[in-house]
Design a protein that fits this description.
Elements (H helix, E strand, L loop, with lengths): L3 H8 L3 E9 L5 E11 L2 E10 L2 E7 L1 H12 L3 E8 L2 E7 L5 E8 L25 H5 L14 H18 L6 E7 L5 H13 L3 E8 L2 H13 L5 E5 L14 E5 L5 H11 L4 E5 L4 H6 L13 H22 L2 E7 L10 E7 L7 H12 L4 H5 L1 H7 L1
Parallel strand pairs: 8-9, 8-11, 9-10, 11-12
Antiparallel strand pairs: 1-2, 1-5, 2-3, 3-4, 5-6, 6-7, 12-14, 13-14
Helix pairs in contact: 1-2, 4-5
This protein binds S-adenosylmethionine (SAM).
């Protein structure tokens, strides 16, 4: 049993950060962060309140900070993080109004001391961030450092969440529902949950789908261990099985194999899902079915070129279909090639403004070169009905 005001008071001499997130009531304040501040030689505490996607700052003395915690914050947030120069502690609110400590670790020292924090770039996900689920998933060590072999994956998920953040900063919703197709070990799924539920304090539901029963079971156990109630994992083949029919705000895929990406995009298009972030993986379908038929034949002579052309053509067609369905679409280099050769992200936002022409060009190429492409096929009926 812990009272946050007491925990914070004892941590004050070396406090580097405190974060109150996930409000218990529907209030305008989504999150409050406290950091030390040196003002004309006096140590104060800067509180940053996030309200309706705006940040409000206030400088407080020790007494004012503790009064604010006691009178306003205690019991009003489900998650609290207290970070000192030597330790990081995480607390979760219990039904009886007290807090349970769910994680503690040695803190990663910041060069230049606590106040230097303000000068650092605000990365979404830092080494040293207390996210115990990432330890269970094998991305962080017990003291929240990146496991060496997982560095590329860490870069990928960090960049993915950065790109999601760029879009979400412009939106003011306080709840979100996301589907992750081919979630696998679910590093991304957990981080997205942490980003929306803990960092942004939004009411968050995410469903991760994957073929592999054992992986899904492991993810369920990790989610349950950390009380991530809004995070669900389901065994499903996204190319066959019936998926949820509740309204969804975002679809994500990260290296979902081959046509699983097309099924995710088709699902999103059918339901007019507002935001799509999709990093495709092995684009075998066109490579396996394309035959010679015209000017592109030169590019199909050599296996390695044929594979690359097929991959580029696949993503060009996906972008064209999305644009023809009313999505503003960008193709972004998602991470450097050295961190993943499958490094393109399709980012699409539904505006309802259709961009004609691309789909027809893709269909003409399909006709001429005889290839199969699932997204073209899956969205054919809708396109024909519009004609
Ligand atoms: C390369 S892993 C990527 C996993 C995860 N998104 C990540 O980036 O760490 C691809 C995952 O997609 C899953 N997958 C492939 N085809 C699928 C399908 N038709 N339905 C559901 N999951 C699928 C695989 O089981 C595998 O876990």
């Amino acid at each position: 049993m812990a009272r946050i005001v007491q925990e914070l008071e004892s941590a004050l001499p070396t406090l580097t950060k405190a974060v109150f997130s996930q409000p218990t009531q529907k209030t305008s304040m989504q999150k409050l962060t406290v950091r030390p501040l040196l003002l004309r030689g006096e140590r104060l505490w800067q509180s940053e309140r996030q309200e309706d996607n705006k940040a409000f700052h206030q400088n407080l003395t020790d007494t004012a900070l503790l009064a604010c915690v006691r009178d306003e914050l205690e019991g009003a947030f489900r998650q609290v993080l207290i970070q000192t120069e030597t330790e990081s502690r995480q607390y979760v609110l219990k039904r009886d109004g007290s807090y349970k400590k769910t994680g503690a670790s040695a803190a990663v020292p910041r060069p230049g001391g606590a106040e230097a924090h303000d000068r650092e770039k605000d990365y979404i996900l830092r080494e040293g961030e207390v996210i115990p689920a990432l330890v269970d998933l094998g991305v962080f060590t017990k003291d929240y450092r990146i496991v060496h072999a997982k560095y590329d994956k860490f870069r990928q998920i960090n960049r993915f969440v950065e790109l999601v953040d760029q879009t979400m900063k412009k939106e003011s919703a306080d709840r979100i529902r996301i589907l992750d197709f081919g979630c696998g070990k679910s590093y991304l799924t957990f981080i997205l949950y942490w980003y929306f539920a803990v960092r942004r304090g939004m009411s968050t539901e995410i469903i991760g789908y994957d073929l592999k029963r054992d992986v899904v079971e492991h993810c369920r156990q990790v989610a349950a261990r950390y009380g991530y109630d809004g995070l669900r994992f389901e065994v499903a083949d996204v190319t066959h099985d019936t998926l949820t029919d509740t309204p969804i705000d975002m679809v994500v895929t990260l290296h979902a194999c081959d046509t699983a990406t097309d099924y995710a995009l088709a699902y999103a298009i059918r339901r007019r899902v507002k935001n799509i972030f999709s990093v495709p993986c092995c684009q075998h379908e066109i490579n396996g079915s394309i035959r010679k038929g015209g000017e592109l034949d030169l590019l199909l002579e050599h296996g390695i070129l044929k594979e690359r052309v097929s991959a580029l053509l696949t993503d060009a067609i996906r972008a064209a279909v999305l644009e023809s369905e009313g999505y503003e679409t960008d193709l972004i280099e998602f991470v450097d090639f050295e961190h993943s050769p499958k490094n393109l992200m399709i980012r699409a936002h539904y505006t309802g403004r259709r961009r004609p022409g691309g789909r027809e060009k893709a269909e003409a190429l399909r006709e001429r070169y005889g290839f199969e492409q699932s997204l073209l096929a899956l969205t054919e009926e809708g396109a024909q009905n519009r004609e």
